[in-house]
């Protein structure tokens, strides 16, 4: 969406005019981030998922720049010789001058080229570069901040790389450098300070000060214009980091952020209004038939049910067929991520389900990594008991089946009383006795290092959700990232999300929100807020988000108690849906995935201006989002209701409430497709201006 451009955008010192009809083959795009081939947070997902689209557009002229980490390179990067002659000379010159720079292909979709810089190898230059930073930019970095020290090393090395690349070019270069976050921002500041012929873009995915302020339980969004930003940053001992971030925002030619809510935040905290908003996307895998992703949901749900059977052994007094799985996942920021309001809403939901004598049971998972020393013994025992019961049942079944087979072979009906002998009953009784349990099922799957002060566990003790037999809401806190190799819950994150019924992300501070976006592309309904970039984006593009399984919680204009009441209402309404209604809603949610595909959102990211010239003072910015100008309408049947056509359901729903309202899935899907534009394609002005992948096809 267009925003007012800053005065500094017109100041392109050191950058020659680029012809509006310049050949894309002559331009080079460097995308620089600390999370290139180095998973730390959400920026890794941003870069990884859009690499394919950017590689297709820029071809051999697209290079990702990140830090060299040996453990990551061994598993993610294929080291090769540089294919670009200028870049080969640049890397050789830097390596001869005391650096260690590596070149290779990142083994992800699109296989983009990566330039990896070993910051530790040049740590001997840290003091000298800090002095230069102070003399040229008046930014001082304390010795004890290791992350900031890494940012200094990485910044000087990336500026060195870009400067050397420009110097090695035979003709005046067309270099575009896209920097992500403050950790890479210092390189941008140095490029401008040294007047390098580089057009720069800076994207902030979240402001440093905003994250710290929200973690301090302040009324952040209602006081944005009143914060003394220098004092607040100094009080939190991040003033030097804040200075780097703010300098990058002001020095860059084009300043972008990922959502409208973050644009407002950046304007007040970084004192510059972003030039455009570039929402984050995902690589969306479309299924040829609607029932395919529904089948995946059923398969993953069955695996979660197996875990629940073991976790609640001895207290499995609820019907798993009427059990709903909710989850929240992400960085362990108790208030910022909304875990506090989610727990309070679960307590209220538990009361509503009990007083209404609901047969539905909710199991709520908290997937937030915290400090632990090992798995909880009782949790591991539960999975062992479940496996033992399965083995016992399987052994008895084999024995029973063999006797039945032999009886039928001789033409006799079996005598049921003789099918199982005393030994079989003894074995089954022993298995039943092993399931006896004198304690409640554990809330946490691991032994926490700070159990008494842990925010989630402290809140659970206060609200009393201890997984009792009378509780209709059960809580499982899994303080570790999911892994398919885990002995406890052997599922990766994508499998787990597909098996759940609802993702709940009532964040107070969420610049974009990849977790609800990932739910959407997998056809899983989710709860987001009007303070998250994702929630605001969906509100703008969908007439009735809740009908499509996107529940938008108001955390900006309501009190905490009112927001909690609204969230409880969302959860209770979801629990009242029939299985058929949930299937219809998942179909609608999955159709929204086109909105989040990089093929739609990638137009204004990473310098992709539809194949036109990179931004200068004389060339207009592509400030209009590809997805702007349309809205998904309200579906024909709201809310989702049982239907006569059942072709998309993996299983026929038993005992469903019948409804006279007809639901034509194909007709509704066709209407939705008409309300989204086709993926963008680059203008075919001349063959020389085509992206590499398209030129290769025409060759």
TrEMBL record:
Q: Which reaction does it catalyse?
A: [(1->4)-alpha-D-glucosyl](n) + UDP-alpha-D-glucose = [(1->4)-alpha-D-glucosyl](n+1) + UDP + H(+)
Coiled coil residues, start to end: none
Q: Which domain of life is it from?
A: Eukaryota
EC no. given is 2.4.1.11
Recorded hits in SUPFAM superfamilies, A to Z, give:
UDP-Glycosyltransferase/glycogen phosphorylase (SSF53756)
* Family in the record: Belongs to the glycosyltransferase 3 family.
What name is this protein filed under?
Answer: Glycogen [starch] synthase
* Taxonomic lineage of the native organism: Eukaryota, Metazoa, Chordata, Craniata, Vertebrata
